[in-house]
Predict the structure of ABC transporter ATP-binding protein.
Amino acid sequence: MTAPLLNVRGVETYYGNIRALNGVDVEVHRGEIVSLIGANGAGKSTLMMTIFGKPQARTGSIFFEGKDITRLPTHEIARLRIAQSPEGRRIFPRMTVLENLQMGASLDDLKHFKEDVEKVFTLFPRLKERQAQRGGTLSGGEQQMLSIGRALMARPKLLLLDEPSLGLAPLIIKGIFEAIKKLNKQEGLTVFLVEQNAFGALKLSDRAYVLVNGRVTMSGSGKDLLANPEVRAAYLEGGRH
Ligand SMILES: Nc1ncnc2c1ncn2[C@@H]1O[C@H](COP(=O)(O)OP(=O)(O)O)[C@@H](O)[C@H]1O
Ligand SMILES: [Mg+2]
């Protein structure tokens, strides 16, 4: 088996004296969609942010393409072509859609700019219609499209998505998840997805991990976890089906 694209080994992350991650092991291979599911406060966003070096892991290591990135500053991690759509989307509200996309483009790669914008507009035609509109005036779903689009402008090898479905209507969520699937199938993009929406995430994913109180308690194929009674009881019963 080839080495994982992303390899998280025994990571512990603290906020002051509070340990938010307690020895996390996660692997993401090229071409996979892998999700991390877990309740609010489990440490999902902390893992995403730790991969990006902010905060840094206190213990353990993170490897990307075999390179140890645990102690790298965030901008150097981004330069390795890891891109993220953070929790809450974090688009620039006063900038237009097009300007937001410009902010995501890597400076080394401006010659691709037009082509890459067109790709984003093909994936999310809604953004094309609204390219001159300010980000802050977009709907939640459109802001999520923009946040993903901006991350794609960096031509990532690995796309990290933190709760893309949060606060969106079911039909909009479906569209977002379909776009992620399309990117993975058509472009071979590798995706690491964090979600409280366990049903949607597991259906979409090749593999998944369950995070409880900063620890991975279960892992398996998306299909197996969907069928797992413990997962069903904790994350799926009464949820979105
Ligand atoms: N900036 C912070 N300072 C202190 N504690 C934090 C901070 N961010 C998150 N935490 C705590 O770390 C734990 C994990 O949070 P988080 O990673 O945001 O969980 P999730 O994304 O799974 O909801 C929670 O107990 C949360 O209160
Ligand atoms: Mg979170």
Summary: Residues 16 and 197 are 29 Å apart (CA to CA).
